[in-house]
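assembly run, all chains below
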Amino acid sequence: MSTAISLFDTTLRDGTQGEGISLSADDKLKIAKKLDTFGVHYIEGGNPGSNGKDIEFFKRAMSLNLRAKLTAFGSTRRKDSIVEQDANLNRIVESGVKAATLVGKSWDFHVHTALQTSLEENMAMIYDSIAFLKRNHLEVIFDAEHFFDGYKNNPEYALAVLKRAEEAGADWITMCDTNGGTLPTEVYDIVSSVHRELNAKLSIHTHNDCELAVANTLAAIQAGARQVQGTINGYGERCGNANLCSIIPTLQLKMGYHCIEQEQLAQLTNVARYVSEIANVHMPVNQAYVGNAAFAHKGGIHVSAILRDSRTYEHIAPELVGNKQRVLVSELAGQSNILSRAQDLGLSLDSNNPLTKEVMNRIKDLEHQGYSFEGADASLELLLREANGELKELFTLESFKMIVEKSVDRPVVSEAIVKIRIDDESVYTAAEGNGPVNALDNALRKALIQHFPSLKEMHLSDYKVRVMDDQDATAAKVRVLIESTDFNNHWNTVGVSGNVIEASWEALIDSFRYALIGQKKVANNIPSDTQRLGLVNH
Amino acid sequence: MSTAISLFDTTLRDGTQGEGISLSADDKLKIAKKLDTFGVHYIEGGNPGSNGKDIEFFKRAMSLNLRAKLTAFGSTRRKDSIVEQDANLNRIVESGVKAATLVGKSWDFHVHTALQTSLEENMAMIYDSIAFLKRNHLEVIFDAEHFFDGYKNNPEYALAVLKRAEEAGADWITMCDTNGGTLPTEVYDIVSSVHRELNAKLSIHTHNDCELAVANTLAAIQAGARQVQGTINGYGERCGNANLCSIIPTLQLKMGYHCIEQEQLAQLTNVARYVSEIANVHMPVNQAYVGNAAFAHKGGIHVSAILRDSRTYEHIAPELVGNKQRVLVSELAGQSNILSRAQDLGLSLDSNNPLTKEVMNRIKDLEHQGYSFEGADASLELLLREANGELKELFTLESFKMIVEKSVDRPVVSEAIVKIRIDDESVYTAAEGNGPVNALDNALRKALIQHFPSLKEMHLSDYKVRVMDDQDATAAKVRVLIESTDFNNHWNTVGVSGNVIEASWEALIDSFRYALIGQKKVANNIPSDTQRLGLVNH
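ok done. output:
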């Protein structure tokens, strides 16, 4: 039996301290569900004492019935006060969570400088706060902030803080490298000392200011820690937190620890990309394990060796983490993914079908142009059904024109003129909107609704734009992802162009087309199929 | 005296194996000059045996008279051949460099699978090739490819390879973790063993496939290696090479080794950003030491502690690596963040100033509308300077009109018409673009450049769009963030509107305004102020 490591995810709390990361309550709920399926053991959702948005999140998250322990974050009581009257600690208890992370000081310099209180009062604050939460039947994870800096400065005091937390009943004691300046050998030595002195279970929380957060986490595990605190993609303040996407596979595939099931580990790449999409943060192509280039080989000698035996230039099989090998010159990857997707849809595209090669080439060509079907299931399904010859075009575009006009002191005006053909009829309409995409959406909807009244029930629920080439940014290619809903169903479509309006138009068109085939299916009452298509209840 | 570490930069060779990295001979020369001033000891320029572009580079680089040793890369002679007749090795000698890196196999599996020769012949290939280069008076760095995988599989053979290289006269012996799958403890143990067995100077070359390249490099140094091979920003195949921008400051500031002079280290951030500009690769904001967010503080509590003593949340003084502290303004923070930002700018907005309350209310109001200044330093600075009454408007908008037109079978067309007022003159221009924002950028630039020719040097380097309310997505508010650069500086601006075009327009205008006040300051030569503003040398 391999030793189990507990995974504590703080993407939703410490992760949002990262520059440019801002998550709505909806975003947080989506990520929490994903993390839960992935198999992390604790999901730190936020600080119910600091703002109303987090209280709202905890309320809604309760109804998700997660297997993971939903965890609230807060600080020890204020100095010179009574713990029962501490508003933030009461807020944690009221939030109804079963586990709480409590942060306290363990660096004497910080007690003096930041808290401006005595070393004794700091100890009392920690003891009282943990004991209070324990009396209220919560599991308590005590985060010793700046523990390593504290230990280096005053080892007796830093250790005494941890012992006090243990006496108060803390279930886990977390050693935090808050400033991210500690080296792996220091982490190993210090955690080893703590491990000899304490009985409580130990946890590690590191930051990436020296590009060492992953190594520091591994060193702590080797020294006896049994819980890892980190975030998906390493999001977090300054240089970020320890990246769970690198730590989990290394612990499990290389060091013999057990974190999650193998099938869950095979979701790693998907989880990383999903969270980056929700957070609207560009994922570096060269990110370890999960990046698009993590198993990409540029021509020449490497490629011919890879073709003989992939172990020649790959440290693990990419499938173990749900990633794939890419040979950058002639890309053959992905075929099996797409075939299995076609099978899911009940389409007869197998590798013996001559259509298969054609649709594979088409998809490869589109991906080369910048399309990405990972976040656009509905567009992929339309492509596959089209290749299978089962899609009748319900309408075609003849032209559109979009005008945005702004004069000083007058509000901006957007209007769209759309000309489409439905059967033999040409429909020519115009509409305003409070933005160009909204104007296009309105004009297109107006044209279509006369023939397809059921479209009234659908609307766009999310709209994302990503610029794909960072250089000369406004001249680069743009990918638009649109999520649509008719309340029961959600579907995602994609458009790509050098022009954000054209890319939006493409994604809009796909969204309407998908709504029409979906509604037709529901009307025809083919439940097994629609279930598989994700057209209901998803 | 602290121990000296030799720095071997391979940005121009291994770095260009990274996906999306492609450098012209001109680019390479620019980077070589920068690296030389920065103080690296070896600059590996390419493989003269593999392509003519690299031969051309070496020819031109010779005339730069670099202090660093220009180094050529190549493989050991072909199997079953005579070394004197090896075209690639002769090419290295002919290139005129004084040092060469020679890569050879040290993993028995690779000898069999990739080379398809015998273990004895591989040894002979290594011996002959090194001896040949030594006879031609070159310094030889022997790169033992896959050394760690080789050692784990067959330690006797892997060590025998290194000994053979030593016998042949190699000046440096490099242990490569080519596949990036080795852990720091393994690196430490293996390098320690090698250090006991060999007399030659040892070098370390790691890859980042487990996000451990930096830690592995440090572990090798601790075990006795005295040279580091790596790249600027960690560019390289798959997940990249060891990142010199993280390794150098950690070795020098935290571990007591000597790599370069302190004044050179203070150029680190500039070097990192310069290379990322030349390589056309966007730099992650959270990159260790040199990222724009590496010393950025968001949380309110963190900020008030930082103002008391920056060591509370900074592991080093950012100036040591040429970076700077930034206080991010966000909903999580409060008035103290904005005041400290104003102080940084030398503005007299303190809490007793009546203007302060006014500007705070203005910022709060804008944030309520959806503006976020956390990723838009330049827009915030413009607001603060405006409130302080020190901003003269250099131009004003009268109107713009933007048209996007698309007919079936014809490419989409975008054009923008812009009317602005500069002093008393009205400037009316139009331009096309390959998207609406590009068209606006082109038209505005065309109008402004006549009066402000220095704007030629700036360009947009990143463009981000975020939809802020998920409901009714295309009618929701949109936030646009634009990053601009003029090579030395980066600045970020924000625009918000229900209309993506109007939001982009706002962010564009701020970007141009900021460029103009920045350039004016540099021209007026106010070093203390511009230094603080980060407008020069950063």
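Confidence is low (pLDDT under 50) at residues 329-334, 521-538 of chain A.

The two ends of chain A are 37 Å apart (CA to CA).

not gonna interpret more than that til we talk
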